[in-house]
Amino acid sequence: MMRFKRLDEWLLWLEQLHPVAVDLGLERVVQVAAQLPINTASSEVITVAGTNGKGSTLAALQALLSCPHKTLTRPSIGVYSSPHLKHFTERVQVNGQPVTEIILCQALDHVDKARLHCDLSLSYFEFTTLAALLIFSEQDLDYMLLEVGLGGRLDAVNIIDADISVITPIDLDHQAWLGNTRDAIAIEKAGILRFGQSSVIADLDPPDSLIQQIKALEVRAVWPVEYSDDGHGFVSADDGSLSWQGKGDGGPNVLGRLPIPQLAQPSWSAALQVASLLKALPSENICRQLLASVSLAGRLQRFSWANRVILLDVAHNPQSVQRLADYLKNESSLEKKNSKGWTAIFAALEDKNIPLMLEATASQIKKWYLPVLDNCSRSLPPNQIADYLTQLSANSPIKSNIDTEIGLSVKESLINAIHEGGEGDKIVVFGSFYTVGEALVVIES
């Protein structure tokens, strides 16, 4: 008999099953996987690790590989990603659609029975990763796109050997588990590399430890970004368009007259390079259409509501927040004298470097809403964030009072920001997936 019939019951139980939320290591998950019919042999497996840009890389890659090409007229693709914004089913998709709750419940039940057979406990992520791999194994997919949850070397996704690995930009995040330097974190990310296999490295400034691991494992690395001196990556043209060059079968692949993509250029460059290595790169015209149209929820996602601009971005560490800050500054500079600054709705997890995130964006923000997140016990209390802002103001050469509103919900903060502002006001929501997810529910409802 199935332990639970509803997905929400399964997920609530999984949150309480394992003694710790994060338990890195592969021994337990490998033992349980051995009891399950997980088989990836018929699929090309692409595993993506990195600090920032994993989700955008998967979205771009999914769009590219979904297009018909010489060897596949209707490619089938499974995508496993985390975390989700609104619904857990977002994490497990087949051919662009989330799998049903029934299918997920059945897969979770199979994992549960295998776990009991081994007399082992699994973490939430390990449990759900095995369920996703089981679902994909039953679909006879052409491609499996797998996103690492945390690190790489000891992440549950790493029980599968990737045909091509991708490492996106690396920065300081999750230091309690991965280390306090980019070099230490890069070693964990490099755990997804396999001896002699192909890997696409999309970090503009790869740590030395990553380069050393690539050499030690004789990895066939491709650098589709400006780091390399082989001409790979995007180049801006005089007319404002882009061209892209990557490694192809027997020579370079070149695409010209490309639009500025909605998703980050390193993510697109990595995705184009993977498709090129798989001999699945669509035509130049289709690539143009995809670069112009493919977007991802919560990544510089814009809405217009009551003649206000609302921008949602899941930036949640210093590197990604700095990119967001640059975007906010650029938007304000385009408006010149008419710019009134941004209203921010900000909540973040307690293990993040919140002072650096606030420092990066403070000059662009005229008012801060610091809400309480509904379903996240790991968020930093709003009053502590307000204290950081006060310290930031006190240390600034330009002394000014920080305008904050504390302790509302994300929904209340968003509604208040709209009502208190004027026509043309701009609101940015950022700090965590939880913050953006709650705002997205409000906007879409």
CATH-level-2 architecture of the largest domain: 3-Layer(aba) Sandwich
Strand fraction band? 15-25%
What count of helical segments does DSSP give?
A: 15
Task: Count every beta strand, where a strand is a DSSP E run of 2 or more residues.
Answer: 17
Instruction: Please state how the strands of the largest beta sheet are arranged side by side.
Output: 4-3-2-5-1-6-7-8
Number of discrete domains: 2
| Class per helix and strand makeup | alpha/beta
Distance between the termini: 37 Å
**Alpha carbon gyration radius:** 22 Å
What does this 3D model show about the protein?
With 445 residues, this protein is α/β, with parallel strands linked by helices. The chain folds into two domains: 7-293, Mur-like, catalytic domain (UDP-N-acetylmuramoyl-L-alanine:D-glutamate ligase, 3-Layer(aba) Sandwich), CATH 3.40.1190.10; 301-444, Mur ligase, C-terminal domain (Protein-Tyrosine Phosphatase, Chain A, Alpha-Beta Complex). It has 15 helices and 17 strands. It has helices spanning 7-17, 27-33, 54-65, 101-118, 124-137, 175-178, 182-189, 208-216, 265-277, 284-293, 318-335, 354-361, 382-394, 410-420, 433-444, and strands spanning 44-49, 77-80, 92-94, 97-98, 143-147, 164-167, 198-201, 220-222, 233-236, 242-247, 252-258, 301-305, 308-312, 342-346, 365-370, 404-406, 426-430. Strands 4-3-2-5-1-6-7-8 form an eight-stranded mixed sheet, with helices on both faces. Strands 12-13-17-14-15-16 form a six-stranded mixed sheet, sandwiched between helices. Helix 4 (101-118) crosses helix 5 (124-137), helix 7 (182-189) packs parallel to helix 8 and helix 12 packs across helix 13. The longest helix has 18 residues, at 101-118. The model has no long low-confidence stretch (mean pLDDT 92).
